[in-house]
Design a protein that fits this description.
Elements: H1 2-21, H2 32-38, H3 42-45, E1 49-52, E2 58-64, E3 69-86, E4 92-106, E5 109-116, H4 118-123, H5 129-134, E6 136-142, E7 153-159, E8 166-174, E9 177-183
Parallel strand pairs: 1-4
Antiparallel strand pairs: 2-3, 3-4, 4-5, 6-7, 7-8, 8-9
Length: 184
């Protein structure tokens, strides 16, 4: 018992040193991500993904035809949906879906007003469910120069980002609505 009294201060000193050296002051301001970067482990948890288009874009066009038709189009990127394509083993690309709002009228009477998106494509039997999820709008243009009746025609170009296959569709608008036909 007498011996324990002599070693008690030394024991308290060792406990105080142990507790004061393990207080975590060095890591207090560091984040988990910084620790992972420092230990070169972050790359095992993350993978580089390129986004196309990187930011939101929008293109609005109003066209008035000489025969009374009016076409309003809004071409924009969806910030919620898209397709991920593995370009290589270490790089993936996220292609944002492109949506098109189309409104066609003649003499202030609305003929067509809809958003061309995956649901529209499936509902109108343009694509099956698999193709609708894989193909994205690449471009669109008005093509009414070769039609003698003067009805507005919108051509939509779809592309499969992985295979680069393309499909063209022509929307023919008239007083009764629209007719969709694939372009070969």
């Amino acid at each position: 018992m007498f011996r324990l009294k002599k070693q008690l201060p030394l024991l308290f000193l060792l406990i105080a040193i142990a507790l004061s050296s393990c207080d975590g002051r060095g890591k207090k301001g560091r984040t988990t991500q910084q620790d992972l970067i420092e230990n070169k482990v972050l790359d095992t948890f993350t993978e580089p993904i390129k986004t196309v288009p990187k930011d939101y874009f929008e293109n609005v066009t109003d066209t008035i035809f000489s025969n009374g038709y009016q076409m309003h189009t809004k071409f924009y990127s969806s910030m919620k949906t898209g397709v991920i394509v593995a370009d290589s083993a270490d790089l993936k690309t996220y292609y944002r879906a492109i949506l098109i709002d189309i409104k066609v009228s003649k003499d202030n009477k609305e003929i067509f007003n809809n958003t061309i998106d995956k649901a529209f494509l499936i509902e109108n039997n343009i694509f099956n469910t698999t193709d609708a999820s894989d193909y994205l709008v690449a471009d669109f243009w008005l093509d009414n120069m070769d039609h003698e009746d003067g009805f507005p025609v919108l051509v939509l170009k779809y592309i499969h980002p992985k295979t680069k296959n393309q499909k063209l569709f022509r929307f023919n608008f008239n007083e009764k609505g629209f007719l969709l036909e694939p372009v070969d």
